[in-house]
Each structure stands twice: as C-alpha cells, then as structure tokens.
Backbone:
C-alpha cells in the first residue's frame, strides 16, 4: 500500500482549510437566508403596511438574523474537533469575530428600529414608550438586560478594550453572554410575532438553541472531562526559567494519545483554586516523551502569573491540541525561527524537530537582557545557530527585528522558511522586516501570544 508523502499532505492542508472557510461562509449565508425566510413567512401580506409597521418589521428581521448568527458564533468557538481539524482554530476564531461584529450591529439596529416602530404605531414620545411599554413589561425588561449583556461583551472584544482588561474580567463578561442569550431567547419565543402563532417555527427555533447548547456542553465540558479521566494528567514539577517564565512539566500515561505536534497548544485548566474556572492557551515546548510533556509559560496575566505556585500532583484538564503554527512548513531545508520572551516555548519544540530532521536552523531570540532568555541552555545544545538579540529598542537605536537588522544577522533570510512567535508588536515588526527582505507570505508563519 502506498504511503503519502508528508510534505504532500502538508501542501494539501491549506487547500482543505480554504475549502472549510468557504463552507463556513456558506453556512453563515444559509443561516441568514433561513432567518429571512422565517421573517417573510410571518409577515402579513394583506393591505398596505403603515410606516410604523414597516419599521417594526425591519426590527424583527434584524433580531431574527442576529439570533441565528449568535448561535453560529457560539458554534464556531465550541472547539468542535471536526471543524478545528478541517479549518483550524485560528480561522474559526477569525470567523467568530467577524460574525460577532455583525451581531453587534444587528442587535443595536434591532433595538433602535423596535423602539422607533413602537413610537410610530402608538404615537408616543420616546420617554412615554419606554416607561409605558418597555419597562412596564417584565419580558421586555428581561430582553433589555440580555441585550445589554451581549452588547457589553461585544464591545469588550475590541482589541483596544481587550488590551486594557484583565483576562479574568474579560472572561467573566463573556460568560455573561450565555445569560444574555437565555434572557433574549425567552423574549423571542414568548413574544415574537413569528413564533406566537406558529408552533412549527417555535419548535424549530427552540431546536436551534438546544442543538447549540448541546454542542457547547459536549465540546467544552463533557469532552475535556472524559479526556481528564482517560489520560490522568498531573503536574509533575514547576521549573523557574527566568524571573517571569516558568516551565510546567506534566506527567500522565495517556499523554502519547494526544498526538500533539511541534508548534501546537492546548487550552489548559489546572484543577486548583485560582485556575479552576477558566482554561488558558499554553504552547507545548517539549513534546510527549516517556509519559512527560512540558509547557513553558510567560507571566502575562493573573492566570499565568499564578502558574509558579502550582503544586506537584495537581490534576490538569487539557483541550486540544490546537493550532497550525508548525504544520505549514514547505520543502525549504533552511529555517529561521524568531522568538520573543515566552514565545520561545513553541519555537523550542519546532527547533528540536527541525534539528532532528537535519534542517539548517537559525534561531533568533529577542530579549532585553541575557537574564530574560528562557531555555537558552538547551537551545544552544541543539544543531542550530542560536542568535540572542539583546537590548532595549531605545538603546539599540533601530528596530532589532527590522529589515536592516535581520539582513545583517541572517544574510540568506530570503531563502528561508520563517516562524515567528511573541507579542503582537514583535510579530508585526518581524513579519514586516521579513517581507521587506523578500520573504513571501506563504513562507512566513506567525503566532501571537495571548494574555493569560
């Protein structure tokens, strides 16, 4: 039986993901079309509608489409294995954000049109409509609260707001979305004109939400719990690497079943106070071997700061592996790896794999001082060229990862496959420098570290 060439499999993977993204776009359009059909079927088609009725119908359409897209948005980040394998978690998160922006706009439009339509129909002022209709109806008050929760979560997802919030606050706000959806859903099925007189539509609408909830519970709760019981993973030891980076060694008889590749990450939940209520993305710095695996974690938030206090024996729940950072490598024998801070975790795993494969590897590690170079000792022991890029940018006088610096450090950079991992600023600087030196986008792979 013929065995597929691994490089050929890698070459086909981007094509599969493009097909998957097209499929997601098709599902989104199908959902929008179904909401539109539901809206059209519920319209009164006799007589000429009054202006207030037209505006109210527009509000109903915006609300129906927003509700369908909310369900699709949740399914995109439910970490369904089939979707993650075929499309990639990064692409799914991208679609989640794009759909979320549309949901936010539609919800605001729904509220504005609903209030305006009611004012025109009832011939009331804004204040009298709010006090006499909206706030006088408990179901509408529920809907207003639910809508507010969803809008707040959407606004805090903007990059500027996200960067100013502690992860734990951001996570709590996003958990409140489920309450907001429940409150809004109750308003839809009890008061929505398209469902009150149509048992079939109401049943279908309930089924959509039940299916969405079932997938989330299975993917985010039951699946990881089953893996916890099967793999029996615990913290073996915590090793300080620098003042703000630690390595957490995990041990478990089922680690080999995870099939993790270099450059991938897990959503990690340590089952101990301070870590229990949220899972955070951490990359693997040493692949499973002899029942052990290593995560290297930088102190970038409350959760990662507390990793230093983890005790041996703590149970660990892993979701994944995720990510395609190291799976897009082409046939080039020469590789450039660029790491910043704790971004050296996935870079170290890639360096080890590429060195074993006999590739020509150059590794640039950006840091302010030698004391901020985690894993330096083991990296210098590999068959590669290790180049620490030290000093603050203000002291160096130029961008240490700009085209001039990169060109001087790695003269043959244009012929290399490049992998970059670090803070968003480092990733932008390095990728801009690589492009300026003639490295095509298809040979630049990058991953930004998230606050945790």
Residues:
């Amino acid at each position: 039986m013929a065995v597929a060439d691994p490089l050929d499999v890698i070459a086909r993977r981007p094509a599969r993901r493009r097909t998957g993204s097209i499929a997601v776009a098709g599902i989104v359009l199908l959902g929008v079309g179904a909401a539109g059909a539901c809206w059209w079927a519920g319209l009164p088609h006799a007589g000429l509608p009054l202006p207030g009725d037209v505006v109210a119908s527009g509000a109903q359409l915006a609300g129906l489409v927003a509700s369908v897209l909310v369900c699709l948005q949740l399914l995109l980040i439910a970490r369904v294995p089939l979707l993650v394998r075929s499309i990639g978690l990064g692409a799914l998160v991208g679609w989640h954000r794009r759909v979320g922006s549309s949901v936010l706009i539609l919800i605001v439009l729904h509220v504005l049109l609903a209030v305006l339509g009611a004012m025109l129909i009832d011939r009331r002022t804004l204040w009298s409509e709010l006090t006499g209709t909206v706030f006088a109806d408990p179901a509408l008050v529920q809907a207003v609260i639910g809508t507010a929760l969803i809008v707040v979560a959407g606004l805090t997802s903007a990059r500027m707001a996200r960067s100013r919030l502690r992860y734990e606050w951001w996570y709590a706000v996003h958990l409140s979305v489920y309450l907001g959806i429940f409150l809004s859903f109750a308003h839809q099925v009890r008061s929505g004109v398209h469902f009150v007189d149509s048992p079939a539509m109401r049943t279908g609408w309930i089924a959509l939400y039940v299916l969405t909830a079932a997938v989330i519970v299975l993917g985010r709760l039951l699946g990881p719990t089953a893996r916890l019981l099967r793999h029996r993973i615990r913290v073996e030891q915590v090793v300080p690497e620098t003042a703000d980076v630690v390595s957490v060694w995990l041990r478990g008889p089922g680690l080999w079943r995870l099939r993790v590749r270099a450059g991938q990450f897990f959503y990690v939940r340590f089952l101990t106070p301070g870590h229990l209520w949220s899972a955070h993305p951490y990359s693997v710095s040493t692949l499973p071997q002899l029942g052990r695996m290593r995560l290297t974690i930088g102190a970038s938030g409350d959760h990662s700061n507390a990793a230093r206090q983890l005790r041996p024996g703590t149970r660990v729940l892993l979701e994944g592996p995720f990510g395609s950072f190291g799976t897009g490598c082409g046939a080039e024998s020469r590789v450039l790896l660029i790491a910043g801070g704790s971004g050296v975790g996935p870079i170290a795993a890639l360096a080890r794999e590429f060195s074993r494969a006999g590739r020509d590897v150059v590794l640039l590690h950006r840091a302010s001082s030698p004391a901020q170079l985690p894993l330096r000792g083991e990296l210098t022991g590999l068959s590669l060229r290790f180049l620490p890029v030290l000093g603050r940018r203000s002291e160096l006088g130029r961008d240490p990862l700009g085209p001039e610096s990169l060109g001087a450090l790695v003269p043959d950079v244009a012929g290399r496959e490049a992998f970059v991992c670090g803070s968003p600023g480092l990733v932008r600087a390095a990728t801009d420098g690589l492009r300026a030196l003639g490295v095509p986008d298809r040979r630049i792979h990058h991953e930004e570290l998230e606050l945790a």
